[in-house]
C-alpha cells in the first residue's frame, strides 16, 4: 500500500501554490508541517481528488487516482479545514447521510456510526443539530465522517483545531491505533499533536517539500542550536525582544528559564538542550508562532 505524489505542481494564474512535490506515503501517521501559505491545503485537496494538478500525477498502488474514480473514493477519507453540512442536520442525521453517500450498506453504517459516536464521545449529542455544537464537537463530527468507510488513506487538515487538551490526547490515541495498516496524513500547526505519533513528517515551505523524515532525524537540523538559560525577571523582556524564544517559564527563585534558538550562545551561562520538533518548526518558520 503506497500513495505516490509524482512531481506535482499547482499553478493559479501568477501564483504557484505547489511546486514540484515528490513524496511517497506508506502506512503510518505522516505529519505535514508548514506555515500558512506553504501549500499544505492545496496539496491535500489534490490528494483528495478535489483539485486537479497542473503538472504531475498522484497514484495509489501504481494507478493514477482519477483513473481509479469510485474505487479510490471508496478507500479514501478526508477532513477539510471547514466541512459543510445542512444547518438542520443532527449529528446522527449527518453521519447517516454521509454513510449513504459513501455507499455503506445500512447494517454496516449503523454499526460504524454507533462505534464512532462512542469513540469520539458524541453519544450524548447525537440528536443535537450540528449548528448548535461547540467548535470542538463539530470537529469531532468531521473526524467521524472521515472514518465512516474505514478508509485505507485518511487525510486530515488541521483536525485538532478547537479540541481541548483531553480531546486531543484521545484523538492521537485513536489515530495511532487506526494507522497501523493505513496511510494517515495530518496537516497541523499544533506540532505536539504529531511529534510523538508520526511515523514520518514532511515539511513544506513556499510550495515545496524541503525535508522528509522521522522526528528524530528532522530535529537534527537544529541540533546545537537550541539553548536554555535562567535569567533575572527584569532581563526576560530584553531577551524576548532580541532572541528567537521558544518558551519561557518562571522559577520559584524568581528567575525565568528561557529556551531559545541561536547559532551560538547568546545568553551567558546558557546550555545546549535536546531539540524537539517544535524547535525545528520555529527555526524554519520564525515569523509563525505555533499554537501552544
TrEMBL record:
Transmembrane segments: none annotated. GO terms for molecular function: ATP binding; ATP hydrolysis activity. Residues 3-231 form the ABC transporter domain. This is ABC transporter ATP-binding protein. It comes from the Bacteria. SUPFAM superfamilies: P-loop containing nucleoside triphosphate hydrolases (SSF52540). Belongs to the ABC transporter superfamily. PANTHER family: ABC TRANSPORTER, ATP-BINDING PROTEIN. Keywords: ATP-binding, Nucleotide-binding, Transport. SMART domains: AAA.
Amino acid at each position: 500500500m503506497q500513495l505516490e505524489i509524482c512531481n506535482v505542481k499547482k499553478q493559479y494564474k501568477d501564483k504557484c501554490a505547489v511546486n514540484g512535490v515528490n513524496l511517497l506515503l506508506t502506512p503510518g501517521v505522516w505529519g505535514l508541517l508548514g506555515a500558512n501559505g506553504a501549500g499544505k491545503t492545496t496539496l491535500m485537496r489534490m490528494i483528495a481528488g478535489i483539485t486537479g494538478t497542473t503538472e504531475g500525477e498522484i497514484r495509489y498502488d501504481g494507478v493514477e487516482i482519477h483513473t481509479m474514480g469510485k474505487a479510490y473514493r471508496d478507500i479514501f477519507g478526508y477532513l477539510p479545514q471547514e466541512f459543510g453540512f445542512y444547518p438542520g442536520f443532527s449529528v446522527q442525521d449527518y453521519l447517516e447521510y454521509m454513510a449513504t453517500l459513501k455507499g455503506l450498506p445500512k447494517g454496516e453504517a449503523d454499526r460504524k456510526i454507533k462505534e464512532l459516536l462512542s469513540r469520539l464521545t458524541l453519544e450524548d449529542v447525537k440528536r443535537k443539530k450540528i449548528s448548535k455544537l461547540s467548535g470542538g464537537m463539530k470537529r469531532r463530527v468531521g473526524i467521524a465522517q472521515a472514518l465512516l468507510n474505514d478508509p485505507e488513506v485518511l487525510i486530515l487538515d488541521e483536525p485538532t483545531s478547537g479540541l481541548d487538551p483531553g480531546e486531543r490526547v484521545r484523538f492521537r490515541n485513536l489515530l495511532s491505533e487506526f494507522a497501523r495498516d493505513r496511510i494517515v496524513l495530518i496537516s497541523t500547526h499544533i506540532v505536539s499533536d504529531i511529534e510523538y505519533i508520526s511515523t514520518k513528517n514532511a515539511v513544506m515551505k513556499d510550495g515545496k517539500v524541503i525535508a522528509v523524515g522521522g522526528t528524530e532525524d528532522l530535529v537534527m537540523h537544529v541540533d546545537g542550536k537550541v539553548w536554555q538559560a535562567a535569567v533575572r525577571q527584569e532581563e526576560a523582556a530584553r531577551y524576548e525582544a532580541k532572541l528567537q524564544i521558544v518558551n519561557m517559564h518562571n522559577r520559584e527563585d524568581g528567575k525565568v528559564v528561557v529556551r531559545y534558538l541561536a547559532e551560538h550562545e547568546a545568553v551567558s551561562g546558557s546550555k545546549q538542550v535536546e531539540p524537539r520538533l517544535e524547535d525545528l518548526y520555529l527555526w524554519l518558520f520564525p515569523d509563525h508562532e505555533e499554537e501552544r
